[in-house]
TrEMBL record:
Cited Pfam families: DAHP_snth_FXD (PF18152), DAHP_synth_1 (PF00793)
Domain of life of the organism encoding this protein: Bacteria
The protein, known as: 2-keto-3-deoxy-D-arabino-heptulosonate-7-phosphate synthase I beta
Entry's Gene Ontology molecular function annotations: 3-deoxy-7-phosphoheptulonate synthase activity; aldehyde-lyase activity
Transmembrane feature ranges: none
E.C. designation(s): 2.5.1.54
The organism's taxonomic lineage, starting at the top: Bacteria, Bacillati, Bacillota, Clostridia, Eubacteriales
Organism: Candidatus Syntrophocurvum alkaliphilum
Record has Transferase as a keyword: yes
Enzyme class per UniProt: transferase
Length: 336
């Protein structure tokens, strides 16, 4: 339930309203907007008399919220959330390029790619250490050693880093990782999401390939309900009947998510198409649709990559793409 207050509400009345709600075990969150102040009620509001509250002098409007997600809901939090990682910002008009290999393979590989994408304008380095592969016989990632190599690249090249976690037990290894990625296959791993809710670090949450937008938001809610509000949503393609691309990029999820939530939305054109040749057009389309960032797989030798080479673009292609994105962004920003 949300309560929209009249402008300049009488403080005494407001305090007693909040106290009364607290006495009913309802947590009241005050959101100060430019034009109005909103109280977001978290807890069981089913017994609250909406008409009684609506009749108070200090109340302009009361609404029951249908959506089961509250922390992620834009109605509760009208302004865009901006996630800061050092000097890098994502959301609220701040666009960030995340680039790097699907999997970390060696010190030389990750540092070479990191230095190249950095010089082309990437703000964050990606690199998987724990790889969720369809086959148990496929390369599973360098695991803890891969995390070490990511940390070395961070130190040597000076880019913040993102890597995927697959299990709660791996959490201690992620202490110095700047953003923790939850992959599509773990979007429903609620125990993992709850554990990530208790830490103080941004989480990039990927949409499961058969998850609805509402389910994605509910998974974000799991993290946020624990107190961690720094969630970045990632559309990485969903599974449809189409087989010409690895997944189907749901570009409409961008405006839909922008309406429903204040969280930043990042697009992954690599996993959503599965082919390097489609990455450029889908990246530009994502920028045009209002995305807050892109996460792109880049490999120095895609043909011999240990994971996802087919969809990885070269550092040269990334450099060209990054220039196009930078040209497009100011034009697109005029329309949003
Ligand atoms: C990845 O980013 O390499 C990855 C495994 O992505 P997803 O979870 O979207 O499949
Ligand atoms: Mn990959």
């Amino acid at each position: 339930m949300i309560i929209v207050l009249e402008q300049n509400p009488e403080e005494k009345q407001l305090d007693s309203l909040k106290q009364w709600l607290n006495s009913m075990d309802i947590n009241v969150q005050t959101i100060e907007g430019i034009h109005s102040t909103v109280l977001g009620l978290v807890g069981d509001t089913s017994t609250i008399d909406i008409e009684f509250i609506g009749a108070l002098d200090i109340v302009a409007d009361v609404k029951r919220i249908q959506e089961p997600y509250k922390q992620a809901n834009r109605r509760f939090h009208p302004l865009d959330t901006i996630i800061s990682i050092g000097d890098v910002k994502i959301g609220g008009g701040n666009f960030a390029m995340i680039a790097g290999p699907c999997a970390v393979e060696s010190h030389e590989q990750i540092c070479m790619i990191a230095s190249s994408v950095k010089s082309s304008g990437a703000a964050i380095l990606r690199g998987g250490a724990f790889k969720p592969r369809t086959s148990p016989y496929a390369f599973q990632g360098l695991r803890a050693d891969g995390i070490e190599l990511m940390l070395e690249a961070k130190k040597e090249i000076g880019l913040p880093i993102i890597s995927e976690i697959m299990d709660i037990s791996q959490l201690p290894l992620f202490d110095n990782i700047d953003i923790i990625q939850v992959g599509a296959r773990n979007m429903h791993n609620f125990e993992l999401l709850k554990a990530l809710g208790k830490i103080n670090k941004p989480v990039l949450l990927k949409r499961g390939f058969s998850a609805t937008i509402q389910e994605l938001l509910m998974s974000a809610e799991y993290i946020m309900a624990g107190g961690n509000e720094e969630v970045i949503l990632c559309e990485r393609g969903i599974r449809t009947f189409e087989t010409t691309t690895r997944n189907t990029l749901d570009l409409a999820s961008i405006p839909v998510l922008k309406e429903l939530t204040h969280l930043p939305v990042v697009i992954d054109p690599s996993h959503s198409t599965g082919y390097a040749k489609y990455v450029k057009s889908m990246s530009l389309a994502a920028v045009a649709a209002g995305a807050d960032g892109l996460i792109i797989e880049v490999h120095n030798d895609p043909a011999n990559a240990m994971c996802d080479g087919q969809q990885s673009i070269t550092p040269e292609a990334f450099s060209e793409l990054s220039a196009h994105v930078n040209e497009l962004l100011p034009i697109i920003n005029k329309f949003y």
